[in-house]
Amino acid sequence: MRYLSALSLIRSLVLLLPLAVIVTLSVGTIEISFDQMIQSAIASVTGSETNSQIAVILWDIRLPRVVLALMVGAVLAVLGAVMQGLFRNALADPSLIGVSGGASVGAGLMIVLAGGWLVSPIAGLSLVALGAFLGGFITTLVVYRVATSNLGTSVTTMLLAGIAIGALAGAANSLLSYFSDNQMLRQISVWQMGSLSGANWLKVSIMSVICLCLIVQLPSQAKALNALLLGESEARYLGINVQCIKRKLIFLTALGVGVSVALAGMIGFVGLVVPHTIRLMIGPDHRWLLPASALAGAILMIIADCIARIAVLPAELPTGILTALIGAPFFVALLLRQRRDI
Q: Average pLDDT for residues 196-224, to the nearest whole number?
C-alpha cells in the first residue's frame, strides 16, 4: 500500500510539473496566453513570422529561467534526500557538509576583490559564479579530509566539521561585508538571498550536465541508502561498500550543490523541507523518495520563482526568500499534523 501511494504521488507530481511550467511562462509584466505560446512554438519550428516581442520574452527570458529553476530545485531536493539518508537524520540538508558556506565565502571574495567581472565575453560566466563553485568544492574536500581516517569516514565527525566550517564561513562573510563598500555589500546581500534573474541558456546547459550526471548515478544508490538506514555495520553485512558509497554521494552532493549555488545563489530550505515532507508522505524507501523529491523540489522552485517575479512588479524579490516563505509554514504545519497523529 505504501508503494502504491508513492507511485500515485509521483504520478500527481509528473502531471503538476508541466502545469506549473505553463503557468509560470504565462505570467509577468506582459501576459502570454497558452495559444500565443503554441503559436510562437510553431513559428520557431517552421520559421514563419511571429510576434518578435513575445518570442524574445518567452524563449530568451522566461523559458531559460523556468528550466533553470526546475533543475536547481530538483537537484537541491534530491541531494537533500541523499544527505538525510547518509546522515540517517531527516532534518539534514546539503549545507551540512559545508558546501553552501564555502560557496558563499568564495562568491563574497570575488565580489570584493574582482567586482564580479566576467571571466571572458565568450564564457559569459562571472567570477562570482566561479568563486562560489570553487569555494564550495574546496570546503567539501576539507570537511571530507577531516572526517576521514584509516578506519573510514565518520559521519558524525563530518557533521561536526561541517557545522564548524559553516560558523567559520559566517565569520568570513561578516568580515568581507565589513570591508565592502555600499555597492559590494548590496551585491553580497542579493547573492546570498538567491536569485534566478541572471538565467540564460548557457547556465541551463551547465546545469543540465549536472542533472544528467545525477540522473545516471543516484538511482543506482537507492538500495545502498536504504541499507545505510539500518546502520553502517548492517549495511556492510548486506554487501554494501560503505566507504565507496559515502565518497561517491559526498562528491555528487558537492558537485550538484556547488554548481546550483554558483548559478542561482543561496537558495535555502528546498533541500530540507522537500525531502523531509516527501518522506513523511511516502516513507523512507529511496527508490521512491529520490524521484518524488526531485519532482517536488522542481515544482516548489518554479512556483517560488514565479511569485518572486510578480509579487512586487515592476521590481523582483529574491527567490531564496520565497522558498523560505513558502516552505517554512508548510513544513511546520506538516510537523504539527504528524504530532497530532502520534
A: 91
